[in-house]
Amino acid sequence: MTVVTAEVTRVEAEIEPPGPGSLHWRWAGEVRGYLLLVKAGLLQLMHPGLGAGVEQHSDFFTEPWERVLRSVPEIQGVTFDWPHGGRTARKIRDFHTHIKGSYTGADGQGRRYHALDPEVYFWAHATIFDALFQMIDLFDHPMSDAEKEQLYAEGCAAYRAYGVSDRVVPPDWASFQAYFDRMCREELVITPAARGLIEFAKEPPATFPLVPAPLYRLLRRPTAKPLWWLSVGTLPEPVREQIGERWTVRDERRHQQFRRAVRTVWPLVPARFRYTGRARRGYARAGVGPLG
To answer: How far apart are CA 231 and CA 242, in angstroms?
Structure first.
């Protein structure tokens, strides 16, 4: 059996990610980002190398909520631990140095993977960046071309703060879109980890750490189907087709109605509920809020 090796390149130059005054500072701490959590997670786990790493090295299958609740605040810390966001990024990178192994590709060839292979690590970052863009574009306002370019340039700076090779990073927004579309059409597959996430989304686990058990038992089944439907509506069409989810004109119309409702109601929500704890602490420490 042929084995294809992984490339690992670390870059030790210290780079600070975007801070106060940036679009990331404005948007990356919004709780609305959780509306894209399933999408980002699924696209990550459909990458064969990334999915294999989660399957072989993670407790996702036994403690899915706990893993998510540990990971998301740390990722937000790359922005909101300013002026030490770069330190947070490199700490996250170093968590992944031992995550490596092998899997069998669709062509029957054995492949080695390493979490710090740029092809793997950047895809994880790309799904998070794409979710941030989509949160703004769908649930707040259609972004201008200038905003898209600025947000993408900031996203590239945030990625470089991790200290992983940037050789695979597309140079601008248009090339990023082409890269993302190619990945969804040609590279992503339904890995065991991705299948596990789909099952988890459709049939959530029996407990959720942030919700009292009696309330969660009451809400778990009635909310699972609409939350999965909401997530399906944010997926790229090639991914929807691959996982066997049908999306009709009626579905899209209802999804647009939901998005309009979120845009209308969101400004009325108190700030302490609109931003995550990591973001609020960053705003307080810097003395600069999301709007500057």
So the answer is: 15
